[in-house]
């Protein structure tokens, strides 16, 4: 009697013999396993065993039939010449056995080949699963690393020390250069930084009126004064050091200029001879939101810009967008341009909105292409407004615009409706060589200076209601 073995299974003691244990282990090895994909990777054992049994039966039956046939042939007495002799009979039986064994060996070989193919498929599947798991692990580690770097750089950008803010700024740039999927977020963070309230420093620092160290007490009429003792002056003790404040404002100005330069750098394609953009170009930026930002000597020349929102922006110094392509809507509503506004050679693919904008200096739109509607409602041009050679493929809306300086529309082309209704021309207005394909309206417009329409082409009606042009050129006040 075999020695009993005990196994604990589901809280119960099971008495099991060694033979049965070996059998169970063998059966367990044959149980189906699951691959990394969760699908049972097992051989159809019942089908394979049935196939082997059928193969043995077929081969055995064929062997039996062959041997029986040989015995029948050997026993033929009718034609002795056709009968097989004793030696030949034995040889024939051996050949039949060889054929049967060969068939069995072939079946076994096919079965072994099948097993090898299955093992190869399983190995490849496991390898793919491991590679996928490794890639997932690497992606997860990369995501955590990117998040860590972004968080650290963003914290640096919020520091009260300018050098730390600059370090965070360039850390974000490096992160975006290495990870294109992070570029929209980084650009949004830069824009958010520029939207923060900011007062630029004056050109020269304002000296402090009094040191916070105190004033000589003998100069004060105080019954409790003691000669030679300095005590804090209540009027100046709590006031900040203006020189230090000016220095901080100057440092903040440098940080903001760095943000502006980085935006321009990554929005400028700078294609090579083959037309491929520079590696520093970030086409993944979906939009720019600089609403209510304070921008200093801002320049986005030769850039390709996504949809742009610059409503209520204050430009300190010049604003340059020369030869820039605005690929979406560009909105400059209620924006103040304190310096020269340079848009010459720019292309506006979408609507261009300058509603309520103020140009305190010259506004130059020479050679600009407006592919859609250009909105200049209630826009104020304090000095010269130049639209020489500009092309308006959509409507040109200058309703209630105010031109304090000269308005130069020489050789412009307006395909859509051109409306200057309610516009005020305080100085000269020139439309020499202009082409108006559609209607032109100056309803309620006021002209105080010379207005010139020499060589202008009107393919449709031009309507003036109110004060007609007082200067040289055609009288279009019919």
From TrEMBL:
It comes from the Bacteria. InterPro entries: 5peptide_repeat. The chain crosses the membrane at residues 43-67, 96-117. The keyword Nucleus does not apply. The keyword Transmembrane applies. Residues 200-250 are annotated as: Disordered. Pfam families: Pentapeptide_3 (PF13576). Keywords: Membrane, Plasmid, Transmembrane, Transmembrane helix. This is Pentapeptide repeat-containing protein.
